[in-house]
Every structure is written in structure tokens, then in C-alpha cells.
Amino acid sequence: MPTSETGPALPDRLPPSDDVTGVAIVGTGGAASRPTARVPIDRKRQPSGDEARGRAMQAAISVIAEKGTAALRMSDIAARAGMSTGHILYHFGKKDRLLLEVLAWSQADLWARFQQAVDRAASPAEKLDLFVRFYLPRHQGDERYALWTQVLAQRHDEAGRRVLTGLLDGWDERLEAILREGWGRGDFAAVDLPEFTIRAMAMLSGLAEDVMFGRPRWQHASAHAFALSALERELRPTGQG
User: Fold this and answer.
1) Within its chain, how far is the Cα of 174 from the centroid?
2) Are 204 and 227 in contact (CB under 8 A)?
């Protein structure tokens, strides 16, 4: 589950039907369609396009982290974003679709910036460092990670589960790509990719929960440094000290 790195990168919204499997995720090549507006919008008084959508998404993440999902109201998001409730309904549609939509936007935004950072990295080792950094929460109460925990705690239909599975699998695929590159260059030891990925992601998820909970052991130590050291020990080629 991702951290709360900041910066806009705005994908399309989820498709307008009850089947949300067509969600556009950066790096997958998918595309999503925009539903017809259900509430008239006064475009002279409201922001439009990517600016409005980004503002609504950021406000939703903040409100969900603060209030949770049970007490969430569209009017809360509208007030936080400085927009009308009708405009928020235009972007999100039904409330029961809001969580998946905001999470998909948050992930696509994070992955776009992760990819930009990876493209500038000089080695697989640097890319692994970035992977850990982007995955773990930055601090207790990290809003994007709080969003993940809120969404995963909900009950989802099969379509929703497919969306969440795709988002989780996206992290696995990115880690495996880094490992393959490192192995191919001789920087990393050869490992069983599926097995190593399961263990690595389980470790990172456990560390993330520790950070979000506020475990005292991470008040004076870095979860990022701990995770990276553990991964590098297993990936160090034979003969290297």
C-alpha cells in the first residue's frame, strides 16, 4: 500500500456502470470512460477539468483519513474542496463508488511519479530503494495509506475485488521488474520471484502497519532503512561482502 507522496497526475475516472473493472491504472494501458453528469453544474462558478477533479480527489482523501468511511458525507468533501456538493456528485457519482474511485486515482497518481523517479535512477539498487520509499507510509497518519486501510476494510462485490486485486498486483509487478533487471545485470542474486515477492510485500505491509500505528521502535529508527537492508541482504550476489 502506497505512501502520501504529493503532486498531480490525473487519470480518467472509473466507468459509469456497476462494473468497475475497467478502471484506468497508470502502466496498464487501460482506459476508462467519463459518465454523464447527473447533477447540473454551474461552470461559471466552479473549477473544471483536471483542476476540479484533482481538488475533489485530494479533498476526499483528506476527509476519509480524518472521518473514516462510516461518517463520510459528500458535503464534507465539497466543503473541504471549496466546491458545491453537486459538483462533487458529478465527479464521483454514487457514494458507494467513491472509495474505489479515489483509491484508483491515488494509485495512478503515485505510480506515475514513481515511474518518473525510476526512469531517472542509475541502477536497480536505486530503483529498489525508490520502491520501498514510495510503498511505505512517510509517517503515522499518512493520508494515502489511511485511505488504503479504509478501503480494504470495506466489503466489496466481485467487481470491486478485481479492482483492488489489480492495484495490489501492480506493486508486485513493479517489484518483480526491478528484481529481473538487477538479476540480468548481475547486481542481484537470482531468487524465486513469486516467493520472494510475497515475502517482501508481506514484510513491507507489516512495517507499514507498524508506522501507521505509531510503534515506538520506529520513532528513532527508519522503517525504510530496515526494509531496504533486509531486502539487499537476500539479493546480494554470492561472494559479495
Assistant:
1) 13
2) yes
